[in-house]
Amino acid sequence: MISENAAMNELLAFQRGTEALSSIAERLSWDQETVMPRGAVEQRSEEMAAIEAVLHERRTDPRIGEWLELAVPQTESEERIVALIARDFGRANAIPAELATEIARQTSLGQGIWAAARANEAPQDFLPTLDQILVLKQDQGHALVRAGFGSDPYDALLDDYEPGTTQAEIAALFDAMRPRLVALREEILGAPDQPEALEGRFAQETQMRLARACATAFGYDWSRGRMDIAVHPFSSGRWQDSRITTRIVETDPFNCIYSTIHEVGHSSYELGIDPDHAFTPLGRGVSMGVHESQSRIYENQLGRSRAFTGWLFARMTDMTGGLSVPDADAFYRTVNRVTPGFIRTESDEVQYNLHIMMRFDLERDLISGRLSTDNLEEAWNTRFQRDFGVAVDRPSNGVLQDVHWSVGLFGYFPTYALGNVYAGALNAALRTAVPDLDDSLQDGDATPATEWLREKLQRHGGLYEPRDLVERATGRPVTPEPLLAYLEEKFAGIYGL
Amino acid sequence: MISENAAMNELLAFQRGTEALSSIAERLSWDQETVMPRGAVEQRSEEMAAIEAVLHERRTDPRIGEWLELAVPQTESEERIVALIARDFGRANAIPAELATEIARQTSLGQGIWAAARANEAPQDFLPTLDQILVLKQDQGHALVRAGFGSDPYDALLDDYEPGTTQAEIAALFDAMRPRLVALREEILGAPDQPEALEGRFAQETQMRLARACATAFGYDWSRGRMDIAVHPFSSGRWQDSRITTRIVETDPFNCIYSTIHEVGHSSYELGIDPDHAFTPLGRGVSMGVHESQSRIYENQLGRSRAFTGWLFARMTDMTGGLSVPDADAFYRTVNRVTPGFIRTESDEVQYNLHIMMRFDLERDLISGRLSTDNLEEAWNTRFQRDFGVAVDRPSNGVLQDVHWSVGLFGYFPTYALGNVYAGALNAALRTAVPDLDDSLQDGDATPATEWLREKLQRHGGLYEPRDLVERATGRPVTPEPLLAYLEEKFAGIYGL
């Protein structure tokens, strides 16, 4: 019989190993998306499968159950660590092994089938696969409910990405936001004076120099990170090694710049966590929503502010010898331009959340069985027409545009909008706490914002539940009001509403 | 009770996982030496420890013993796979767990202590650590002997790097080589007409373009590899992903060029192995000696040949607008210049093996206890004076120059010279089989050599024991004669001996 202390120590040591192996798996994915030779796909797939098998075995290791029964945590941190390990262990063991294997198999195939169907504008090539994945995810949701994780399969799935939040809470937030965002969108698009687009071509080298300058402006720690080019920008890793990626579109330098600032937000969060939490479940961002709040506040509330874009205008003018827009005020309007469009990832601060809301409603209906995959495309197009006022012209601009469902990510979409809500709340508190922030931003220095966010939120890692963490940082309950007020005020100014 | 077939299948499946995880660990090391942020050292150390712990557990997993008892291999490949797994399993289990842990601990510390001692020219700061490592390696050797792996601790250690070869065999080779190499070296250094050195500075970009052209000339498959810069060049990985590194010294482009060609040799071997062997013990180079034979024949017998250097001279002249040497003949002599020097890694084809021979003799005496670490520096300096005719001027040019012993690599050095002997034998057979090889080499195309080596040697991976493999490829017993004859003829021509 092992003692209570021994059980706690063994649990922590075992978890350290699991966290380190999980970090390795993430580094392999980074490698695959940035530097891996293109001919290494099969090999990498087998390597990933091997380390995922080790991780799955560790996460369901029966010794964890024994240690959990005996372990007596001594501190608040240890209590939270034990609770998080217990939750992961319970969730992992709730899924029958055959179901877990089948989900892994189908979702690894799903992405390729989706990509081909999207390229061919052929939803019928993808929907049967989606249907199989959907059934598996429904089964997963039911298995989790039976094991006591949530009262509803969708809530149980959501809990993987945003622990402690329910679809009812999210639906209430979204219901409050939707009419005001639809109205704001209509006003903006109907305004007589529309901002101009940025014209010209921007060399890769220039864009990368700008991106580096922006990352530095936001306090990105280059000694613990690096920047590479990827097809879809992402950030990867934590503690002493959190890397970012960006992409280059020759005619659209904002793609590179704001992807960079967005990923710097994610990485700053991971790099800002108290090093004492490293290799414990507290040593990473607590949820997708909170993560997204960091990337979004960096990208939007700070990065697209009048103050920061003033600095950016000067830098870009210096580096390129002159832009197509005449001055910093026009540049600010250009950066924040709202235009009609089908694609979520290309949309602006106003329309983005509307994209999310329709996906949230559709995927809840899919999981509950109220909507079948046979009717999904029609449901998508109907809803898009209603919220955006235009008809979807082709599947790649509609139901086939996102990768998420093809890899089994049901319950993930709402965390993007939740991140925006959190970012709005944090921005209001930040601006009160650091009233002269714009003075720094206009000099290309966002570090006072990073410092406040680090102190109030980032350093805690997984110590508090997501919403609790945001409420501790802002000192008030989370509501969509700060985000909506910010958007209405900002875009009224830009569009003369 | 599992059936024979089931045992074989389970053994192979388990081994696939182990091979994949081992490949991941190697990829992490690549990352660390090339792209990892400098601030990530502690984190990476914990990650490496975690995956090494998993690998150690798998290599000693008692189920392997059960499967080995029952498994019935059906083919020659399967027989060899089972034999290799059994050998690794036996060797891993021969080392007591505490000894394995202590070796891992001491050798992970050893490198840092060695590097500091070398920087400070202070052998006394390193020798106590070396002594601890030596005792552990002696213990390891004795443990292996007790378990039936070799009749002598040094042989048992050597077997990790060059399976099936004994120190007696190596000593016999070296005894035959040493007098002729010492004599050749003296003749060369005494010759009246010495080649000139290459003068000038060569930009990093130019060197990298040259290095890429050389790698391509040797048939390096860029779709399954890439090239980066590292402090100490190395190659890493296999099957679909074998990467090389090189280094840049502004005043010495040959460093970059020949490091590249050397590493292309290693990588070509790994990339040339029959894909059917992937993720089995046959799916990698069979020994360090055979590996080195590939890197050396690419670098020296082919890369420093008159034919290839003629092409290289033209390329370098094109890219730089003119070199300090007047023509291709002078350039060939410059590339193959022999000068006195203390450092193994900077030495030429003639002197390199002499450096190895003294290390081989010294480390055998250390492991057997005939030489103590207290007397090591004196023994080194005495031997160096005898073989090279000059006195060592400082420890970093003498006993502290190599990292190997500090990380526990006893028995590794002789594989470098063995590689040269194998390369000499392979080159003689290659030149007979492909008599017009120089016609291709002078056009910057070494692929006929790669094709022959692939067919005769590389594709077999671990299928045959090292010496057997080389003898199958050349059709005759391994002797140092082809290497010595090649060196004597080549340098007689260059130095007018």
From TrEMBL, chains A, B:
The keyword Metal-binding applies. Coiled coil: none annotated. It holds the Pfam family Peptidase_M32. Its EC number is 3.4.17.19. It catalyses: Release of a C-terminal amino acid with broad specificity, except for -Pro. It is an enzyme of class 3 (hydrolase). InterPro entries: Peptidase_M32_Taq. This is Metal-dependent carboxypeptidase. It comes from Paracoccus niistensis.
